[in-house]
Amino acid sequence: MKSRFIFTPLAIVVMLLVMPYVRHAGAIGWLFGSVVVALIPLACLYAFATERRSMVVIASLSLPFLVLDALGLVSTSRVLHLTTYSFATLLYAYLIFALLRDLLARRSITADMIYCAVSIYLLLGMMWSGVYTILEVASPGSFQGLTVSADIIYFSFVALTTVGFGDIIPLTVLARRLAVLEAAMGSIYMAIIVALIVGRYLSQETGGEKS
Q1: Domain edges within the chain
Q2: Selection from 111, 147, 132 nearest residue 180 by Cα
Q3: DSSP β-bridge partners for residue 143
Q4: 48 in helix, strand or coil?
Q5: Rounded to an integer, what distance in angstroms lies between the CA atom of residue 73 and that of residue 173?
Q6: Angle 202-208-211 (CA atoms, 0-180°, nearest 5)?
Q7: What are the angstrom distances between the C-alpha of 201 and each of 77, 92, 100, 112, 197?
Q8: CA-to-CA distance for 174 and 188, rounded, in angstroms?
Q9: Could you say which DSSP state residue 144 is in?
Q10: What are phi and psi for residue 147, nearest 5 degrees?
Q11: Among residues 105, 109, 100, which one has the least CA distance to residue 203?
Q12: Bridge-partner residues for 144, per DSSP?
């Protein structure tokens, strides 16, 4: 049986690796970056192809986000950026919710379960990068050390994994509190997901022994 979720983490990884190099490479690079960003909702639409409601919500959030993202090529309006990243944050938040719901409903360990768990973790980093971008656009100077937009994503994953390199620093109280919340969320998620997988594994093994 073909995995439904294998393309979601692949799409996120491709986006993370490709975006910093193409987004600032002129008009063609910007538009290609928009196509790369679209891979994530497309992969999730494939994953939830049998769930009409999820597909409608994903499409409804993705379409304005992708259109506004492409318009960023011709406009540097703060309102446009705020709206774009608001839709992006809502999209990633919903994808996390939908994937988490699917993950918790599973009763046995499968490849899909692992792909789903990895996707949620990566999307947490993406969602929080949207939150930080909104904060920086609305209140410039909330972070020190930012040079390009991709650095926001970098900072988000540094906070999520609690690595804490310190080359990008949240300066305002709100920025620091948000970084604390993301770090706590990353740690709690890892603890819960490990416990969930171990519990499912033990239950699966016990059921196999009884049969």
Answers
A1: 7-210
A2: 132
A3: 170
A4: coil
A5: 32
A6: 140
A7: 51, 29, 18, 14, 6
A8: 21
A9: E
A10: -120, -40
A11: 109
A12: 169
11 neighbors 39 (Cβ within 8 angstroms)? yes
Angle at 167 between CA 162 and CA 172, to 5 degrees: 80
* pTM as predicted: 0.90
- Which of 113, 96, 88 has its CA nearest to residue 185? 96
* Phi, psi torsion values for 42, nearest 5 degrees: -65, -40
User: pLDDT tens, 138-195?
Assistant: 999 999 988 765 689 999 999 999 888 888 999 999 999 999 999 999 999 999 888 8
Tokens 């994994």 belong to 161
Structure-token match 């209140």, residue found: 139
Q: Which two tokens stand for residue 31?
A: 């538009």
pLDDT digits (tens, 9 = 90+) for 68-121: 999 988 888 899 999 999 999 999 999 999 999 998 888 778 888 889 999 999
CB atoms within 10 A of CB 94: 20
